[in-house]
TrEMBL record:
Organism taxonomic ancestry: Bacteria, Bacillati, Bacillota, Clostridia, Peptostreptococcales
Occurrences of domain RNA polymerase sigma-70 region (ranges): 29-96
Family that this chain belongs to: Belongs to the sigma-70 factor family. ECF subfamily.
UniProt organism field: Geosporobacter ferrireducens
GO BP field: DNA-templated transcription initiation
Any Pfam family: Sigma70_r4_2
Gene3D superfamilies: 1.10.1740.10, Winged helix-like DNA-binding domain superfamily/Winged helix DNA-binding domain
Protein name: RNA polymerase subunit sigma-24
Domain of life: Bacteria
Signal peptide (UniProt feature, chain positions): none
Record domain RNA polymerase sigma factor 70 region 4 type: where: 119-170
Amino acid sequence: MELVSFLDHRKKSTVYKAKKGDKEAFLSLIDENRLNIYRVARGILKNEEDIKDAIQNTIIKAFENMCTLKKDEYFKTWLIRILINECNEILRKDKRSASLEKNMGDVTERYIDSYENMDLIQAINSLSEELRVTITLFYFDDIPVKTISEILETSEGTVKARLSRARAKLKEILGEDAWS
């Protein structure tokens, strides 16, 4: 128990330092959350360049607005919320540019993804955005339902319903055998 308390205090002090403008402390926090933010961005966006842009914009906005974080223990939740907003902004821009491209002719862009042949990744990517994000946060980032509801600004019941719908769809896509 003492180790957990020590680690919590260390993390809080790192957030505190970052809020006071300590760049090294901020970079340390970003490094601790690097895999989480990549997974979330990957869950929302398909294109690696878009994922990189979303992460870069998130880091810049988080650094610029670090002093607005009210509770140090919610740094990860706050960071992921910024990331989701950035991903959604990229999706909105892509939608607008896609309609422009459609008017200009059939232009298709293909990107190479080292995970594209994995059945589970393909199945998750076929889900709607809200199901994809929810399942990514819950299963890949091990974020509890309560925290997901805060990040997505929705009720815990909605998060649970989305998880249930996502599991059912994945079971349907991957087949019964995949879950045995």
